[in-house]
Structure formats: C-alpha cells, structure tokens
Design a protein that fits this description.
With 364 residues, this protein is α/β, with parallel strands linked by helices. It has 2 domains: 192 residues, Rossmann fold; 162 residues, Orthogonal Bundle (N-(1-d-carboxylethyl)-l-norvaline Dehydrogenase, domain 2). The chain has 19 helices and 12 strands. The protein has an 8-stranded mixed sheet, with helices on both faces. β9 and β10 form a beta hairpin. α16 runs antiparallel to α17. The longest helix has 20 residues. The protein is globular and about 50 Å long.
Length: 364
C-alpha cells in the first residue's frame, strides 16, 4: 500500500495508531507541534515505534515525522486527530486554513468535537468543504512504556463513528474501514457524542474515590478497586440521564454496561459485573491524582455538553449537574477550562428538528 495517512498527536493513542497502521503497510505521516516534539524526540530521530500487546509485537517504521502541519496535511486523503478532546480547540486554530478541498478529518474519539471544530474553523473563515468523522471511543486501550514504546491492552472489536455531515456517512466509513476495520456507522455525530462512555464511566466514580486516590499516592486501580457495587449503582443512575437526552433527540443509545460489553470491555451482566470481569480495564493503573483527565477532560468536555443539551431540550440532569459542581471544586476548574469546552459549537438556539437537519446536511 502507498496511500498517505496523516496522524495528528503524540500521545498514547496517536503513537499506537501510527505503529499499527504503519505495520499494516500504510504510509504514515505523524505530526506533533514543535513545542511538544521533545515528548516523542526518539520517534523524530529514528522514525521507529516499538509495540507489543494484543496486536502482536514489532518495530514500525514511520514514513515521516514532522512539526510542519501544512506538510503533514498535504496530499492526505484522510487525517486522524488522536488527542485528548480538551485540546481540539488548539487544532481547530492550527488547521482551519490548511485543509485541501474534500479532505476528511477523523477525531478518535470526538465527544462532540466534530461540531465544535467545524464551528470554530468556519468562524475563522475556513474556505474549503471537509468532512469530519468522530468515533465514540479510542480504538485501543493502550499505554506508553517509553518515548517510542507502547503496550496495547485491548483492541476494540467494533466502535461507532458519526460523520458530519451525516449525508457523507457511507463514503467516509468506507475510507476509515481501510485503516480501522472495526469502525461501524452511527446515525450522526450526536449519536457518537452521546455514545462516548467516558463522561459517564469516569467522573462520578472517581470523585467517590477521591480520598483513596490521594491517600494511595499513585497506587490506585480505579476499575479493580474503586469501581465497587455502590459506585456502579451511582454511575448507572447518571447514565440514565444520558439515555434520556438521547431519547429526546431520537437516538436509541445502549446503556453503559451494554455498550462496554459490545466493544469487548467486559462480560455480560450489570455494570459492576461488566467492569469487575474486564480483563482489559482492571489492569490499568490510575488515576493517581485529581487533576487526571478522568475529571479535567470528562467533566468540562463530556458532562458539560450533556448538561447543556439537557437544559436546551428540557431533560433533567441532576446527577450530571451535581458531578460537575463537585468536580469543579475538587479540581479547581475555572472559567478558562470552559472556554475551551465544546459547548461553543453554535447549536444552542436550535430546535431538535433544526439540529437534526444541521448534522445531516452540514448547513445552518
């Protein structure tokens, strides 16, 4: 294969995807900002990534590693942005005038990032039409073992992708499946944003364990020791609010346990049984401090958007609201955090019908 694929980002997921796709024969260009390049300095020098775990083991040779974002995008049919959702706004500012007509940007995962990024980029004056896909999950459970080494605990047997505009779903999923055969089509980016498990799975449960996390000084396994039956019961109650938002928008969402089971994260049962029996999740260490992404990303980026949709469409979200309020105090989340959140995506005044038309056609 010689198709050029661009991967933006230098974290666990981006490095893992670059390694696997390169090992599978694709011509990979990996981009990281110059100010962050030192985090993957060895990859810049050698263009090699060592990997092991459920996808096998080996050393992948990356075709190009660059900090020139224009060079990274040039000639790429598809671009994968694999970073924490809290930094999507940074890439929106960097990318808006770099795209070529008809290119496809895919966020792995998105958490409503497609709506946020297209709004930000159009507001900056983006002159070309692109398609944006966003997944409801990262395709891997993976961790770095070193600057250029990754260990992959789990690879999802399937994950959902919403496309903006939704009328481009069929062609876009066809492109993505060449690289990630597990990708399946969701109705639109509203479905992918609401189907992301992390905002339901992480913040409330972590806050209920915050004393243990701080006392353990890094020796804490959230899924193994923190996700007790009582914690699972509370998380299930919060998840019901997410499902209610989906119902108002006409989206049939699986509950959290069923969703985790469908991607191989645990056995059938209620949420506690699924998490407790998960060979992929229980070995993961952390979070080790309250500033972890389980709170500082999944509250302002995930739960905050769900709260906003609940308010917009008159769906009660008392547990979501309470989790946000407690998390803001515990993590000292200030206004600067919310300025980069995804509730700026230009949909606040839309009715359900107007919103569904917008995500389908891409036009206001």
């Amino acid at each position: 294969m010689s198709e050029k694929v661009t991967i933006l980002g230098g974290g666990n997921g981006a490095i893992t995807a670059a390694a696997e796709l390169s090992a599978n024969g694709f011509e990979i260009t990996l981009f990281e900002f110059a100010e962050l390049a030192n985090n993957i300095a060895e990859i810049f020098e050698t263009r090699e990534i060592e990997y092991d775990g459920v996808v096998g083991s080996g050393v992948a040779k990356i075709a190009k590693v660059t900090s020139d974002i224009g060079e990274a995008l040039r000639g790429a049919e598809i671009i994968y942005l694999i970073i924490p959702s809290m930094y999507h706004h940074v890439y929106a500012d960097a990318l808006w005038d770099k795209f070529e007509e008809g290119q496809c940007l895919v966020l792995l995962p998105g958490t409503f990032g497609a709506l946020d990024m297209i709004h930000r980029m159009r507001s900056r004056g983006m002159a070309v039409d692109i398609t944006i896909g966003e997944s409801d999950a990262l395709p891997y459970a993976t961790r770095r073992k070193g600057v250029n080494k990754v260990h992959i605990f789990h690879k999802l047997p399937e994950f959902g992708v919403g496309v903006f505009p939704a009328e481009h779903t069929k062609s876009t999923i066809g492109k993505i499946k060449k690289h990630f055969p597990a990708a399946t089509a969701l109705p639109d980016v509203l479905a992918s944003g609401l189907n992301n498990a992390n905002p339901a799975l992480h913040p409330l449960g972590v806050l209920l364990n915050v004393g243990r996390i701080e006392y353990s000084k890094g020796n804490f396994y959230y899924y193994e020791e923190g996700f007790t039956d009582s914690v699972a019961h509370a998380v299930e109650a919060l998840d019901c609010e997410r499902l209610a938002i989906g119902k108002v928008l006409g989206i049939d969402l699986p509950d959290l346990a069923t969703g985790l089971q469908s991607v191989g994260y645990g056995p059938k049962g209620d949420l506690w049984e699924t998490i407790n029996g998960s060979r992929a999740l229980t070995p993961i260490l952390g979070p080790s401090y309250v500033g972890n992404r389980y709170l500082t990303e999944d509250i302002p980026i995930g739960l905050n958007m769900w709260r906003s949709l609940g308010e917009q469409f008159n769906v009660g979200t008392p547990l979501i609201n309470s989790t946000i309020a407690i998390g803001e105090v515990v993590c000292k989340l200030g206004p600067d955090v919310y300025r980069r959140s995804n509730t700026t995506c230009g949909i606040a005044e839309m009715s359900v019908d107007e919103l569904k038309k917008y995500v389908s056609t891409g036009k206001l």
